[in-house]
Specification:
mainly alpha; 13 helices
Length: 221
């Protein structure tokens, strides 16, 4: 069995990442909060002026190029640029953007390879949705979220728990939390959920999660 301290350390580190989407896009700082709002709901009313505003402010606010929030922000800028054909500012982390757009680089492979799944990849998918409004990114997160009960049961049933077991459970937990949270904030995600409800062969866990997504806002009122 994993040592308790090691298990706790891994659990805490993943839980911190679980809140990464909200930290990245909704800082309490007034300027960052305004920036986050422009990014999170950009797909609803895309404007080039807002795209340029976001780039300028990211560069101004994030001085540390190793900031853990940077990857999700790079992906957002890249997806907006590709979707609308708008050029990225020359001073917007040119080296990092070059690596991101290079499918042979470690960064490019991480972003593009859907076989690599962890909480950071969830951030990449959310950033992509916020930039484009495309359902495919939310569906990838939903696919991880609906595995929560299975991963929880697997983890609980094993006497000897591996790091991978814990990783799978906490990634699914992060996906579930972020999916429910963004369902409440985005009507478009609830529209996706209604459409997905019509699909055949949904598991009971998937049906339950979709119902929570669709009914969640009404239940809060």
């Amino acid at each position: 069995m994993l040592a308790r301290s090691k298990h706790y350390s891994l659990r805490c580190s993943i839980i911190l990442v679980l809140f990464f989407v909200q930290i990245s896009f909704a800082q309490t700082n007034g300027q960052m909060k305004q920036l986050g709002k422009k990014m999170t709901f950009f797909y609803q009313h895309p404007k080039k002026s807002n795209f340029e505003y976001v780039q300028r402010n990211i560069v101004a606010m994030l001085k540390n190029k190793k900031d853990k929030r940077l990857l999700a922000l790079l992906v957002w800028v890249d997806k907006v640029s590709q979707t609308h054909g708008w050029k990225i500012n020359e001073n917007f982390y040119p080296e990092a953007m070059k690596k991101l757009r290079n499918p042979q680089s470690e960064l490019g492979q991480f972003v593009s390879d859907d076989r690599i799944i962890n909480p950071t990849k969830l951030d990449v998918w959310w950033s992509s949705f916020f930039a484009t409004g495309e359902s495919r990114y939310v569906k990838k997160i939903f696919n991880q979220a609906q595995k929560l009960e299975i991963t929880k049961e697997t983890l609980g049933a094993k006497t000897t728990k591996t790091n991978q077991d814990v990783h799978n459970f906490l990634t699914s937990a992060a996906a579930t939390w972020s999916f429910k949270s963004n369902c409440r904030q985005h009507q478009k995600i609830r529209e996706f959920a209604r459409k997905w409800q019509q699909q055949a062969n949904l598991t009971q866990d998937a049906k339950k999660l979709l119902k929570i997504c669709i009914d969640g806002v009404a239940s809060k009122k």
